[in-house]
Amino acid sequence: MAAVTFAHRTPCLRGLATLPRSWNPAGRAFAQWSPTASAIPSTRRPVQNRRPFHSSPHVSSRPRMTYRIAVSSSGKGRRFSPDKNIYSFDPATHNAIGLQRGRNYLERKLSRPDSGEDAFFVSKINSHPNAFAFGVADGVGGWTQSGVDPADFSHAFCSYMAECASNWDASAHELRARTLMQMGYEQTLVDRSIFAGSSTACIGVARDDGTVQLANLGDSGSVLFRLAAVHHYSTPQTHDFNTPYQLSVMPPLIRMQSAIFGGRQYEDLPQDANVTNYRLQHGDVLLLATDGVYDNLNNQDILKTRYSPG
């Protein structure tokens, strides 16, 4: 599991970060959660003109937003550890988190965050100190029946999106969430170590003017909390029961078998993702999570946890 959240620099972030400690369904600590992240925007007050008189009208620009970003993750069947499974993204010391590093497949696999089949990333956009890309991806577990590790696709996908955002060579305001999803997907398709797999995804880009754009594909999703209420939430995209929209790398053999035996393989594209645009306000909390969260907690449950005392 993993999470990305935007919020004011106060207890909101702490409440989200400590959420897994107090919730333990069926003896498991967020076993089905996938990547989530949280960040809260705070405004910097413009300096006031203290002179008693000025001949020209006073012009003030829109206040800039600053964000706090944190991630919580826990692989399925693994015991949650606050020391290992909570990540705080500090743009002063990090360009990105959620990257895979290594010269070969094994080294890259060992460098992954401890989030199981689900993955996450947070990255500065083109080294901008207060413009970020972030997202969660839910590796489809059904691939294990074909001998494929579902984590390979989701972690590579998130790692490539983090790299693409970090290396973005234009203004941060020009990067779109669906564009970033497309770039990460294209890189995953040409990665020869990823011969099969699929994933849902919820991807966001945030700028320092408070605008946030989300692209959601499948049953991962987002919830925006404002003024101690659920302000907006995404709607899952599904083809059928337990068949969410998903990005895929489909081996020719499996595609051929499906054609022979009449099965159907869904191969959705980033252009199919739903796009949502927000203008965040001071104190907003934006949560991105995979379906493991929403299968166990509804929006009101999350709201109560977020605003509970202590």
From TrEMBL:
Residues 103-310 form the PPM-type phosphatase domain. It holds the Pfam family PP2C_2. GO terms for molecular function: metal ion binding; protein serine/threonine phosphatase activity. Its cofactor is Mn(2+); Mg(2+). It catalyses: O-phospho-L-seryl-[protein] + H2O = L-seryl-[protein] + phosphate; O-phospho-L-threonyl-[protein] + H2O = L-threonyl-[protein] + phosphate. Its EC number is 3.1.3.16. Keywords: Hydrolase, Magnesium, Manganese, Metal-binding, Protein phosphatase. PANTHER family: PROTEIN PHOSPHATASE 2C, PROTEIN PHOSPHATASE PTC7 HOMOLOG. Belongs to the PP2C family. This is Protein phosphatase.
